[in-house]
Amino acid sequence: MESCAVSTRLAATGPINDGGTAAPGHEAGQDMKTSGILRAAWIAAVLAVAQLPAPQAAAQVQLDLRDADLRSFVEIVSEATGRNFLIDPGVRGTVTVLAPQELSAADLYDVFLNVLELNRLTLITGNGADRIVPMNVARELSSGAPQGGIGDFQTRVIEVRNVPLSEIIEVVRPLLPAEAVITPVPRSNLLILSDRGRNFGRIADLIERLDRPSDRPIEMIRLRNADARDVLDVIQSMDIVPPGAAVSVDRRSNALVVTGPEDLRQQLRRLAARLDTQQSNVVSTAIELSYADAAALADVVLRAISNQTADSASPQGEIRIVPEPQTNALLITAPQDRIDDIAEMVQFLDRRPSQVLVEAVIFEMSVEGFSDLSVQFAGLLDDAIVGGVEFALTGRPSLTNLVAAVANDAPISPGSGGTFGVGRRTGGDGIVGLISAIATSNSTRLLSTPSIMTLNNEEAEIVVAQNVPFLTGSFATVGEDAVPENPFQTIERQDVGLTLRVTPQINVDRTVKMAIEQEVSSLTNSNASTGGEITARRALTTNVLVRDGNVILLGGLLENGSGAVTQRVPGLSRLPLVGGLFRGKNASQSQSVLLILLRPRVVESESEGTRLTREIAREAKAASLAIAAESDDIPPRTRQVVLPFDGADLNQPFDAGFVDDAAQIRDYPPLPSRLRFDQKN
Fold first, then answer.
1. Residue of 286, 561, 651, 659 with fewest CB within 10 Å of its CB?
2. How confident is the model at residue 673, as a pLDDT?
3. Same-domain check for residues 167 and 105
4. Which UniProt keywords are listed (predicted)?
5. What does the H/E/C string look like for 483-528?
């Protein structure tokens, strides 16, 4: 083997083709005699090998091949070893083998495998014949199990138990030949390796050595005073952690997590003990707040810190947060290692709050109708009714009252509606009759659109009402002769009108959750029997979730009512033609509709607030013009009211010296100049 040299490059003598003629690359100066000798040596070697019997293992072969065809060399090996070979159509190339000493069949086979490897070829062992194929083809044809041949191409699945796949691939991939393939399967923690048989064992052994459980212990070094992050910065700056070891921080327990040999852990324990000393460097700072309330924010931060300091190094008594209401600032005293965390917490909470404009629409409409028709007649004897028919309802003229008024020469009140009376009276005797008819209708239409602006998570309330007195009691002392003395009454005043109370909460997706209390009340036209006022009240309390700018129905009511009352004289009222004289009838009908709508609008910047203000100002101006147009036809005509913000320029500064017309008309202090009123309209 020491005298054998293998090369796949062209030798100086040039290739020898199958016909024995020299290739064109042959040197021009070489004579024909030398070429003939080489051809004779080639033929003699082939004939000598061909005469050897196949099973004769001790046969010796002497090779001196220069740029011979690879297929011819395969024939020589097949004859010498007695093995059968199938050559893939893609196998091409030449070979130069210089073996001055004789080779046994086994040595020749080793030389053959090396020649195949240098030509990027390999063997696939089979039953009866071995296949010679390119290595890239062998990877696709390998069965996955070793076949015993030293040149076999194999594919195996290797399970990795202890080390991440990425670490093993990072180490193994540079050591693999170009034709080898390694594929990870992270879900099952497996490696699929395809490589030549004799190289496969080396790579598999390397993977097995890498995939060993780590025997490095893990230790936690707890710190009582120092911040673990600061200690880690010191350790990293010293560069004392060797390869394979690691130091990290557990912020929750304020501890160092060390993985490495015992000497490293001892060194870090000593260093941490020196750095973990009691700190007395308490510092103070003042933080001026931009939006949050100092007193409320101080309470929130202190409660948050009280929960954190239960397991931390800094005792709660060293941290003090004092609100200063005059400047809306926080005075903070805390250890140096905690002051930054507290300041970061304060800055996070001190953010510009969003606002919500809540617009409500309350629409109410009601219609009522009433009709009455009755006939009354009676006989008189000495100005007293001795018999007859009377159907007098509440509020309608009564025949008895009319007869008494005539007898006493008192004023006669016929009541409302149509009334027709007839009678004949002689002295105090006679007969009288009365026919009354009335039909009434009453309609009401109410549209209220209250609006209110409030901060996020802040309750707001708007009340538009009359403060009406209600009688709640009366008292009087009884003096001599049972005459009341010093009477007095107790009165309670209540708001009657519209009340809207809302608490909005803005969510991250620009939806608004609102707790709403709304009430609409009004005085009715009737009084209770005790003399007190009767109010009609519509109220709701609810929680809703609605997207910014959308309209939602909070509640509604649709009501229909009807009634009829008939009074009759039994028997006589059913007589034909004259039965109507013995009965009276009235009927009533009512309808009402109530709808309550609401729309929230999130305001996150000054520009949005300005835009909404201008929008509402335009709506108010349009409403005032409509009211003025209607009032022009109803005398007496009144001067048109000038509304605030009517044509206001909200971008003007406050330092312009002028008084607007609306302020002069209303006789109250002028608004800032940027709220200038436009009188052109």
1. 651
2. 43
3. yes
4. Cell outer membrane, Membrane, Protein transport, Signal, Transmembrane, Transmembrane beta strand, Transport
5. CEEEEEEEEEEEEEEEEEEEEEEECCCCEEEEEEEEEEEEEEEEEC
Q: How many domains does the chain have?
A: 6
pTM reported for the whole predicted model? 0.45
pLDDT band at 615; cut points 50, 70, 90: confident
Return the ∠ at Cα 314 (arms to 309 and 316), rounded to 5°: 55
Give the DSSP letter of residue 582: G
Same domain membership, residue 157 and residue 179: yes
> Averaged over 184-189, what is the pLDDT?
82
Q: How far, in Å, are 98, 191, 250, 254, 543 from residue 234 at the CA level?
A: 66, 40, 16, 15, 55
Residue with the bigger pLDDT between 271 and 63: it is 271
Same structural domain, 324 and 245: no
End-of-domain residue from the set 188, 210, 232? 210
- pLDDT of 166 reads 84
**Confidence class for position 536, pLDDT limits 50, 70, 90:** confident
Residue 459 lies in a domain: yes
Top pLDDT among 677 and 63 is at: 63
Q: Which of 139-143, 222-226, 230-234, 594-598 has the lowest mean pLDDT?
A: 139-143
Q: Are residues 598 and 454 in the same domain?
A: yes
User: Please, are residues 154 and 121 in contact by the beta-carbon 8 Å criterion?
Assistant: no
Q: Is residue 225 part of a domain?
A: yes
Tell me the HSE value of 207 on the side-chain side, using a 13 A CA sphere: 28
Amino acid at 352: R
Kindly state whether residue 649 falls inside one of the protein's structural domains.
yes
Strands 121-124 and 85-87, bridge-based pairing? unpaired
Give the model's pLDDT for residue 635.
52
Q: Which of 489, 491, 487, 493 is nearest to 474 (CA)?
A: 489
Which residue segment(s) compose the domain that 255 sits in?
218-275
Whether 103 and 183 share a structural domain = yes
Rounded to whole angstroms, the Cα distance separating 45 from 64 reads 8
Buried/exposed 332-362: b ≥16 CB within 10 Å, e otherwise? bebbebbbeebeebbeeebeeebbbbbbbbb
Decide if 235 contacts 246 (C-beta within 8 A): no
